[in-house]
Amino acid sequence: MKWYKYFNHPLFIGFVLSAAAIFAFARIFPVQHFEISYTSDLNPGDEIYFCDIDDDGNSETISYYDSDVFFNPTLSIYHSDSSLLAYWNFFDSPAKNSRLFFGDFNQNGIKEIFLFTQHQDSVFIYIINPKDDKRFLVKRRFITTLRNKNSDYRILPIGLLSIHSNPEKVFYFALSFEHPALTDKIFGYDIANDNLFHSDNLRAQISNPIVLNDINGDGTKEILISAKTKENRLSKSLAQLWVFNHQLEYFFKPYTFDEAPLRLFLDVLQTTKDKYIIALNSRTENNTVSHSLFLFDVNGRCIAEQQLDWETHLVALDSELSEEYFTLFSGKHILEINADLKIDRKKRLTRKNALQFLGAQQIGLDSSKKLFFTADSSLYIFSPDYKKIGKLPVTNHDKSNFTVKRLRNDPDIIAYQAGVKLYFINYFKNMGYLTRYLIYITLFILITFAVFLVTKFLHNWWLKKNNNNTRYNQLTGKFNNDSNLLEDANVDYHTPDDSAKEVLNAPTDMKNMVQQITNHFDFEIVTSFYPNGEWYEINQHITKTVGQFLEDILTSLSDFDQKLSLYLSILRHKDYLNILLELPNSEAKDFSIFNDKKEMSKMLKDVKGKIELDYSEGIGTIVNIYIPLVIRKPSKSSNHKIRIIIAEDHDVSLFGLVTLFKNKSDIEIVGTAKNGMEVLQILESKKVDIVITDISMPGMDGIELTGQLRKKYPAIKVIVFTMYLENWFIEQMIKHGAKGFVAKNSKINELTNAVYNVYEGNNYYCPQFKSKYGFNVAEKKEVTLENKLNSLNSYEKKIMDFYAKNLTKIKISEFLNINAKTFETFMANIMLKLNAADEKEIIQMAKKLKYISG
C-alpha cells in the first residue's frame, strides 16, 4: 500500500486545515505584541536616555542637548512625572561618537552619569551625581590630547569593574581612532583615587562587542578586545588576540595570527568543565571573504583551529546572549558556534534585504533579552531564540540610541532614537494566551469533524452515483474449530532423522499447505503464488492462521454453492503477505458472508493482519488481506529491545558484529563469547532472545551449543553465522533447532534482517545458503519480460491496458468499479511482479509495450 494514500484521510486533512487556522489565529493575536505608542521630534544634537538613577523602580529622563550655535551643551534630568530634577551647562562640546554611560561606581544606590567632552584638542570625562545639588560634580578628568581638534574618534564605554574587595569600582572605556596612523587604547579610571591608567598602544581599531569575563575564576573580570584592521601603508597592522587584566596589563602574551584580519571578534565559551576563548578571524582577498575560527585555553594557547564555510561578512553579537555559543550574524542568518568550532544552529532571520543589528535589551515581565534590528525603514524585534515577534515602521538613521523606560507596576516602554526622531514603543505580553490551548484543541476537533462529515457525504454521493452503495452482507458462515487438515500439514521442522533438504522442503511451508487445503474442496479454485519459492521461511504461526482462515471461509462458501469458482492469489512482498480472494459477481452477489469484516478480522488479529472487502456490481467480491512478516522497530518510547549474544572466536569478526549491532537502537548486545561454554555462563544471569553463533569454535562448538540451548533454553532462537555451508554441518544445526543461516560473505544487512525475521518467528536463509541447496530450482523460470507479464492476473492486465490508453488511476478505478484501497493493492502487486519502483514506471512500461490485455 502506498504511504501517500493517507494524505486523503479526513484526520490528516483536518489536521492541516486546523494547523493553518491556528497559525493565522496566532499571527492575528500574537503572544508578544509591540506597537509605537507615540513619537517625538527632537532638535539636532539632542540625545534622550532613560535610566532608573535612584533604583526606585521608575526611570528618569536624561536629555543631553548641544545646539552648537547659541547655547552651551546642556544636561537635563526629569522625574518620572516629567518634573525637572536638575540641569547643567558645559563649556566643553560633547565628544565625538560618544554616548552617556550610567553606573554606580561607589555602590551607594545612586547611579552616576559618565559623559565625555572635547575642548579644543583635549578630551575630558565628567562624572556627575544627579542626586547631590551641592557636590554634583564628582570628577572632571583630562584623558588625552588629540593630534588635532578635528580628529575622528570614538569612545566606547566598557563598564564598571570591582577590583577584588575594593568597594569602589573602576570605570573602563576604549578610545578608538579612525585614522590609520593613530593608535587605540583601553583606559581605566579609578575614580575614588583619581587614577587614570591605560593599556599599551593597540595597532588596530577597537570595535564592539568588547567582552568582560572572569576567565580564570579569581573574582575579577578580564577584558577581551575585538578589533578591525587599520589600512596603514607605513606599517603593517598586526592581527593579535588581546586580553587585559584589571590593571590593563596583558593577561597573557598576545597571540599573533598568521594573516591580518578584516575583523577579529572574541567571546568566552563556558562548557561543563572549563572556559575557553573563541576567536573569529575574517579576511577579504580578491573580493572573497574567508573565516577562521580559533579556540584558546585561558592561558592563551591555541588548542583548535577550523575554517568556517561562509561566504559573506560576519559580525559578533552581544556576548551575553549565550554562555555556550559564539553568536555570529551575517545580515540574514544567525550562526551559533559551539566549543567544537562547528555551527551548532543556523537560523534565517530574513530572506530579503540584510538587517543591521542595533542591540539587545532586557524587557518584559520575563526580563528576557529582545534583539533589535533595522532595515528598509523598519525596526525588527526578535525573541532570544531568534523568532520574529515584531516589525515597526521607523526612520532609518546611522545614529541610533536604545534605552528602556521603566515605571513601577507598568509595562516597559522602549525608547528608540533614530536621528531626530524619538519612538516610544509599548510591549505587551498577552497573559491570556495560555487559555488559547483549549481554543486550539476545539478548533482542531471542530475542523476535523467537519472535514470528516464532508468527505463522508461526498463519498456516499459518489457511491450512489456509480451504483456502488451495496453493503456487504452479514457474515453468518460457520467458523468451526476443526483444523484436522491443517494439523496434518503441520509437521515439526526439527525431527532428528531429517536431512537439511527434507526439513526445509517439508509440507509445512505455506505453499504446500494452501494447495492441500484447496484440493480438499470440490468447486473450482484457481490458486497462484508469487514468487514461486521462499514460502518455507514464513513462520508456523502465520502459516497455521492463514490455513485456518482459508479453510473456514472456503467451507462457508461451499455451504452456499458447490458449483462456484474463485481465484486465490498469494503474494509475498518484502515485509508483508498479500492474499487476494476473488469471486466473480455472477456467483457471489447473493452470498451473505461478506457484509461485515469484524468476525474475519478477529481471526487475523493474532498475526496483526488486516482485511479489506470490495464489492461492485459487474465485477464481483474481492477479499483483500495483509499480514506483516517482519517485526517493526519499537518506538523510541518503548523500552523493549531484542536481546542477543554473539559467539565468535575471531576478534576481527566479533568486533565487526558488535559495531554493527551497537548502531541499532532496537537491538541490545547482552554479552559476547568465544565458545559455547561462555554463552551458557552468560545465560545463567541474563535473559536472551537470540544467540548468533559460529559453527567452528574452540571448546564447545556451535553444533553442541545449539543442542544445549534446545534442551535448557528452548525459547532462545539460534542464528548461524558461518563460512561452513557443508551438508553435514547444516543438517546438524537444523536438527538442533537453528532458525537462521547467514554466510560470512553475505551483505552487511543480511544479519540484521535475520535477527528481525527470526525474532518474529520466521526462518531466515541468506542467498548463498539458498543457492547452495538449490531451493525451488525446478520451479524457477528464466526472468524475462514475457515471464513477468505472464505472472499478472486478469485485473492486473486490465490495469496495464488502461494505463496504455492514458487513463488515470481514478478513471481506472471507476471502470473496474473497485475502491481506492483495492486499486492500491493491485498496483503494489504489479510493481512486485514487474520489479517496478513506482506507478510512474508502470505507466511508462505499459505505454512502451502498448500493452493490450487478453
Strand content: 25-35%
- What's the end-to-end separation, in Å? 26 Å
Helix content: 25-40%
Structure class: alpha+beta
Low-confidence stretches: 466-507, 632-638, 776-781
Instruction: Tell me the major beta sheet.
Output: 8 strands, antiparallel
State the helix count. 19
What's the average pLDDT? 80
Oligomer: single chain
Using the alpha-carbon principal axes, give the shape.
elongated
- The Rg value, from CA coordinates, equals 41 Å
Total count of strands = 44
Task: Describe the protein's architecture and organization.
Strand 31 (400-405) and strand 32 form a beta hairpin. It is elongated and about 120 Å long. With 854 residues, it is of the alpha+beta class. Strands 15, 16, 17, 18, 19, 20, 21 and 22 form an eight-stranded antiparallel sheet that branches. The chain has a six-stranded parallel sheet with strand order 40-39-41-42-43-44, with helices on both faces. Strands 6, 7, 8, 9 and 10 form a five-stranded antiparallel sheet that branches. The protein contains 19 helices and 44 strands. The longest helix is centred in the middle third of the chain and has 30 residues, at 436-465. Helix 1 packs antiparallel against helix 2 (436-465), helix 5 (510-519) runs parallel beside helix 6 (540-560) and helix 16 packs across helix 19.
